[in-house]
């Protein structure tokens, strides 16, 4: 009986044990995905619940390979924990546990780490649980670069033409590229807009995208700005960046043509360099432009013409543009007028003759295409305005040269001038008598200034001689110069005459005979010469005297005896003679009276 009870107890325990195993369930909860940027650290959390508690659990981490197989990277049981060798994560993972939580940490995340990770929790009994999380990796791409087509694009192309390319490098996942024209997105449209994409996987697993835009352009695209927008993913969000804008050269035919005067601005006058410009409203490098003077037929095979303006260049100028493909042409014209100013004409043309006291009138005009005004000048001073000049009550002061300046009021640099010469007819007028004081033996210039017309004839009378002198015609008459050698007081008379009368002027010349009147330099030279001559004569006399004395001394004619004789002068103005006989060397000094001098006087 006791044995039966024991067996029944064991059977009950076994049944109870199996009952517990059937109900020992492990529940695992994980996020669907974990997002992380490249080269950063990812944390994948595995949360579980179990009736057995956490002390006796077996924890394992797996990743799913590209072929779909599971590869274990971590194992933990109540006794030990191990990171599996030979996997890409053996040096980059760390697992931390807490009650009901297991965290897998992956450092230096790369693109190839984007895969599914599995967390498996097993109890001591047969119960277990498993969860999965997809690791998403993101890389921010570089800023996009854009490049426009180098050549221009023509609007008459039947197929879309390449506009440009946009490239974005090193992004993950694949960035999305969208083209824009002036802030409006462009979509592919057959026969109008074509957008192509090309994706390249770099060695580091990142993706680069090149997009090419082709479009059938229109004239309005000449100022349009094209750019590309790149949308890319980051953990938990989407971001956007744009390229720099580009413009392209659009070739299109002209529908209108223009011609105008580029310079000078305003009215044109003879002598100006006129520049004409010709252009169309299109942009066609193959179009031919030309400018032609309609009247003369002169043609410039270019869009610019330079003309040295004269009045014959006035007229119509035509600008023509020719399409070299269709040979269609457009023309337009403009009118050019060159203003002119002829040389001034003065009436009378010959020098004007007027009698003293009478009036003279002259006119000055110049033919011009514009309004003119005339100003008269004499000796640089303005004397009258208007085309007509009237001079009243003429005098010799009226004689001279008058200049008329004809100017165009609208163009300050446009002017011409003429000359009028006026001669006032009348008897001569001379500057009256005057006295000239000069020194003897000096040449004097006598000047006789005479006004009158016709030019007076001048005759000089001086020292009984008649001369015309040196004559020079001036604007108001004549000037005569007579050179006179002054030796004594004299009178010179200047006599001027013409057909209207005569006039005289007397010059009284007084000669002053004084030594001081001699030029200082000349006196100084003569005085020096006299002194030198006197000194030379004195030296010659002394030489002669010395020779005579020496001769007499030698002959013994001095003091009544022969022998050597020396003459000296004593302190008391006595003449002392030193006498020596032929037989002795003894010298006796005698005074003037023949007295013997004391020895102390020797």
UniProtKB/TrEMBL annotation:
Question: Which UniProt keywords are listed?
Answer: Disulfide bond, Glycoprotein, Immunoglobulin domain, Membrane, Repeat, Signal, Transmembrane, Transmembrane helix
- Molecular function (GO) terms listed? laminin receptor activity
Task: Give the matching PROSITE patterns.
Answer: IG_LIKE (PS50835)
Keyword Transmembrane assigned: yes
Q: Which residues form the Ig-like domain?
A: 40-136, 144-247, 253-331, 343-415, 428-510
Protein topology in the membrane: Single-pass type I membrane protein
Q: Where is the signal peptide?
A: 1-24
Highest taxon of the source? Eukaryota
**Subcellular location as annotated:** Membrane
Q: Quick check: keyword Glycoprotein in the entry?
A: yes
Transmembrane intervals: 530-553
Q: Name one GO cellular component term.
A: plasma membrane
InterPro entries cross-referenced by the UniProt entry: CD80_C2-set, Ig-like_dom, Ig-like_dom_sf, Ig-like_fold, Ig_I-set, Ig_sub, Ig_sub2, Ig_V-set
PANTHER family assigned: CELL SURFACE GLYCOPROTEIN MUC18, CELL SURFACE GLYCOPROTEIN MUC18-RELATED
Name of the molecule in the record: Melanoma cell adhesion molecule b isoform X3
Tell me which species this is from.
Parambassis ranga
